[in-house]
Each structure stands twice: as structure tokens, then as C-alpha cells.
Amino acid sequence: MEVRHLDLLREIARRGSLVAVAAAAHRTPSALSQQLRTAERELGVKLVEPVSRGIRLTAAGQLLAEGAEDILQRIAELQARLEESAGSPRGQVRIGTLPSAGEALLPPLFRELAGTAIELDLDDFDLAEEDFAAQTLDADIVIGHSLTDDVPAGASELVSTLLVREPLDIALPEQHPLAERSSLSPEDVSRFTWLGVPQRYPFDSIPVAVEQLTGRSINRAVRLRDNRLVEALVAEGQGIALLPRFTTRPRPGVVLRPLTGVRAERAIVALSRPDRYTRLAVREVTDRLAAIGHQLTEDGKAAEAV
Amino acid sequence: MEVRHLDLLREIARRGSLVAVAAAAHRTPSALSQQLRTAERELGVKLVEPVSRGIRLTAAGQLLAEGAEDILQRIAELQARLEESAGSPRGQVRIGTLPSAGEALLPPLFRELAGTAIELDLDDFDLAEEDFAAQTLDADIVIGHSLTDDVPAGASELVSTLLVREPLDIALPEQHPLAERSSLSPEDVSRFTWLGVPQRYPFDSIPVAVEQLTGRSINRAVRLRDNRLVEALVAEGQGIALLPRFTTRPRPGVVLRPLTGVRAERAIVALSRPDRYTRLAVREVTDRLAAIGHQLTEDGKAAEAV
DNA sequence: ACTTCCATGTAGGAAGCCTACATATAATAT
DNA sequence: ATATTATATGTAGGCTTCCTACATGGAAGT
């Protein structure tokens, strides 16, 4: 019985189709199909059966997939023990990130890891809160965020590390009447036109809360994903918007004012599957991200004091 | 990290040298040496270091070898679960046996297994009691014996299954004066010339016990290993000897008489390493051996009653 | 000094693995 | 109905990997 085959079965169980597994493994479906048949021949059991357009694990395949989960976890633990005892962390760590969080966290990370045996591989995406967890299938570490809690929805099975709690401020054009105030209430902001984000995107929960609190519906001029674009439009006077405090670069024509009276902050977290998190390199990178996040908070406080 | 490499490290830990591992695996030492270097390259750690004429595992190698033990055991368990759920036992089972015990136990076993997917592979040897355990490195099941206990010396870590308790009788020429008695005492037998076995061979413990009990030294004409040869010489009147009751074929000119007053029986046991014993086929064969052994005892009683 | 034992290096053949392309089949769309 | 899409599987060929045979080198024993 080979690890390669166990791994394949586990992936089929998780992802459901050969095409999906092949894409994740950068292989062709044909290769995996052949591997499956080799495994079946060696074990003397049928492992998958056709169903609709795809395949499904047989009882035997499922049994092995479950066992594989355990065995691969133990192999990962052994590897971690080895790395701990015999040297410094090494290898490739694949990070998937929110663009906004990545912009603040990743440049220092690259700087710190220069010269170590850890190699970073990046991917970025902007998703609904509950979709971050699924990305941990592909990435060792997923940097995601949560508006309501410190653990994003769907991440209960994952290792979740809080990196920063980042306030979400109201971005205003410099000449905006509200710009003179040092903080803003839901009442204040509900009267103006907003630049929103798509529905079900995390940031949207805050204007929704404002609407519930004030009983007044907010006028959203547009729904955009990209914060840079939003910044530019705020500067143009197209509306006010929610922007994360640490990752919004100061920009002429735009000021940030804290929003009080609703929970206006996001938790930026690092998520990993337990088996991937056992790798020393993955823990190391997560720890460094947490330290960088902490520094971000400190810098924020210092700037406020000035 | 590949199972193949883990297995290699475990075997090196157990057997001590590449040549020994190569012999057991039917590979050349060169192949293993190259595998080792591939493993070292992949893991980024030195796994072995030269010492005297051979090699020795480094700390890292040892760590992995220990982890391998656990992981390979779990893989074996998974395989067993698969076989249990998905069909009948199959594959090759390698048995190493004492010739005398094998003669009685194996023919029925072959008969029973004809037509199943279990294939037997045999090896035979005649060893000192404490050397049987070492044979479990190579064989799935080792049929050995113990004179003093139901578990042979050195087998405490192994799965040990009692197959038969076989009386060891005194073989006499038909015309021998003692042949008229229905059972013999240490006093009786210590006066005659014996055909013995080499020192430290299990059977030797009984004449030694007789010597201690009677305070008289036994005259051993020769020291032989092969029971057939001993039978032939007993028939020739060259002396009396200890022979196992069930595995001594009745033969004109020779009679067997029970020896009383000392523990004159051997326990025939099947030994397996725990990881090999998890295989369903191995358990199946062990069970069948135990059943055959039980039948042997029953047949013995029936014959006595006649 | 010679032999023995063990590990390692090299070259070449065999086996295995993966990709590209083609085929088959079921579900969905037009 | 027919075409299209999505998924798996089969085939041929190239690349890689693995193992054996043989040679080399060092350490221990005679």
C-alpha cells in the first residue's frame, strides 16, 4: 500500500471528482485514473464506481480514504518532529490571501524570510466569508477575515490564528461635512450615499447593521470589490465607504473616521488544515504573520497618538 | 516522505547493515544505498553515517525509524480492515518452521488452503530456542517450540499462539528391557545410553533435568539434530532417545513410552511480529494451524484410548 | 600483505509515470 | 432531436526512476 494511493483516495473523498483532484495536483485526470487502476490491481479491490457523469468511492475506497486521513496526518507529524529536531524549517509554503490583508502582511513576511529555506508561493482571492475555509484544500495557509467573530464561518475544523483585529473606518472626501468630526455614528453615516460591496461579502454586514439600527435604508451607489477603486471614488466625491484602517494607504483627498455604535472591525485570521499545520515551516510562517499583525496594531496606535 | 523510505529505515534499524536488509528484501545493497541518498535528498537530512565497516543511523534516521514503526503498523492495520471488509484473505504467507513440527502441521494446512487466495512460502530451520524469535524478521509466521514455557525465550514482543502441547516420550528399541513398562521414571532412563541433541538445543533441557534429579550423569553416545536419524539409530539399538509423540511416525522396532517425574513436553507455538500479524491472511493461517494442532492432540488421545 | 566485509559509485536496461490526444457516456442546453 | 458540456478512461510515446552488474575504496581480521 503506497502513500501516493492513499493520498489520491483522500483527495477524491474531499474533492469529489478526478478533474478536481487533477487540477489541485497539477496532473491530468488520465494520470490519476491510471493510478487508481494500479491501486485497485495492487489491493485487489474496486475503489471507485461510476455514478452519473463522475465517480464515487466504493465502500472499500471510503474505508481506505478514512484510514488515509489518519496515516497521512501521522506522516506529517513525523516530518514535523524531524524538522524540529534536525534543523530549521524548510520547503514551500503556499499562502492564499485576501488582497487587502496581503498587501499589509506579506511584504514584511517576504523580507523576513529572505535567506531562510522557506519558499513562499502566493495566491489571492476575494471571497464571501464562508468560502475561505475551502481554500485550505489548496493552500497551506489561508489569510481570510471575519466580521462577526474571530473564527470565520466554516472554519471550525481548521487551525485558526488571529493575526490582527483591524478597525473598519468610514472613508470620506476631505471636504465632506462629516470630515470635521473625530468619530461618526450610524445616524451620521446613514444619510449619505455609500460605495458598497457585493451582497454577502463580509464588509456588507456593517451597512446592514447600520440600516437595522437606524431603521433607514442606505443608498448604495455601486457595489465594488476592490478597495483601491473605492478609495479613488471616495476621493472623487462619489460617496462614502468602509475601508480597513491599516491597509488603506493614506491618500490625499481622503480621510478616515472611526465608526462607533456598531462593531466595525474585522478579524484577519490565518487558517490551515491540521495536517498542513503540523509542518514546522507552516507554523513558523503563521507565527511570523501573527507577529507582523501585532506590529500593525502597535503602529496604528502610535499613529493615533500623534 | 515515502513509505518505501520509512520501511528501509526501519529495516536498517532492525538488521543493522545494508547487506542484511538487501538480502531480506532480495535487492542489491547498491539499490538500497541509492534509495537512502534519495531519501536524504528529499528530506534534507543525513540519515546514516559510516561507522567501522558499516553504517549507523543518525539521530534523525533513528527518529524516522521509530516513527516508521508506528506508521507502518497503522498501514498494516488499514490493510487488514480492508481485507476484512472487502473479501477473503489473500496474498503470500511466509512460514518458517521446525522440521518436526512442520511435518505434522503443514500437510493438512496445504490441503486446507488449496483453492483459496492464500499462497504459502516455506522455510525450515532447527535452532536454539532463543533464536526462533529472530526468524520473525523474515517470515510472517514462525513455528517454533519451547520446553520450559508456552512462550519461547525472546518472544515477549511477538504475537505467540500455542498450537500444541506435545509430550516428549522415550523412544526405545522394541526388545529393550524398559519397553515392557507403560511409563518410565528419570531413575529408569538415566541408566541407559542416550542419543542426545546438541547443547542448548531445546530437547537437551530434559536429560539435563533428569541428571539433576537423579544426580547421575547421562551417557550421551552422540548429539544429533535430525529426529529421523535418531529414530533409525534407536531401532538399531544404539541407545534410547527423546522423541516428540505426535510427530514421530510409528515405525517397526521402536516404541514410545511416556516419561514421568519431569516436565517432558514441548509447546509448539506460532510466532509473528505484530505488524505482520495484523494481516488477515496471517491470522487466518495461524488460526488454521491452531486448529490442526488441536486435532493432533485429539488424535493422540484417541490413539491412547485404543 | 592478503583476504574479507561492507558501503558506494557508474552505466545501462527495464519498468513505471505522466502528458497529449482520442473515445465513450451521461447530463444539460438549444 | 441535436449539440454541447463535463467527466472518466484508453493508447502511444517520451521522460524519469529504479534496480542490477560490476568496479572501487576503506576498514577489520588473518
The proportion of residues forming helix of chain A, as a percent range, comes to: 40-55%
The count of helical stretches of chain A stands at: 10
Mean pLDDT of chain A: 89
The CATH topology of the largest domain in chain A corresponds to D-Maltodextrin-Binding Protein, domain 2
Which terms summarize this structure?
homodimer; 306 residues; alpha/beta; Arc Repressor Mutant, subunit A; D-Maltodextrin-Binding Protein, domain 2; seven-stranded mixed beta sheet; two-stranded antiparallel sheet; 10 helices; 11 strands; elongated; DNA-binding
Written account of the structure:
The first copy, chain A, is of the alpha/beta class. The first copy, chain A, folds into 3 domains: 3-84, Winged helix-like DNA-binding domain superfamily/Winged helix DNA-binding domain (Arc Repressor Mutant, subunit A); 87-164 and 266-305, 3-Layer(aba) Sandwich (D-Maltodextrin-Binding Protein, domain 2); 166-265, Periplasmic binding protein-like II (D-Maltodextrin-Binding Protein, domain 2). Helix content of chain A is 43%, strand content 22%. Chain A contains 10 helices and 11 strands. Chain A has helices at 3-15, 18-25, 29-43, 59-86, 99-113, 186-190, 205-214, 227-235, 274-277, 280-305; strands spanning 48-51, 54-57, 90-97, 117-124, 141-146, 159-173, 194-196, 220-223, 241-244, 254-257, 265-272. In chain A, the strands form 3 sheets. In chain A, strands 3, 4, 5, 6, 9, 10 and 11 form a 7-stranded mixed sheet that branches. In chain A, strand 1 (48-51) and strand 2 form a beta hairpin. In chain A, helix 1 packs across helix 4 (59-86), helix 2 crosses helix 3 (29-43) and helix 5 crosses helix 10. Chain A is elongated. The model of chain A has no long low-confidence stretch (mean pLDDT 89). Chain A binds chain B through residues 1-3, 43-45, 59-60, 63-64, 67-68, 70-71, 74-75, 77-79, 81-82, 85-87, 90, 117, and chain B through 1-4, 43-45, 59-60, 63-64, 67-68, 70-71, 74-75, 77-79, 81-82, 85-87, 90.
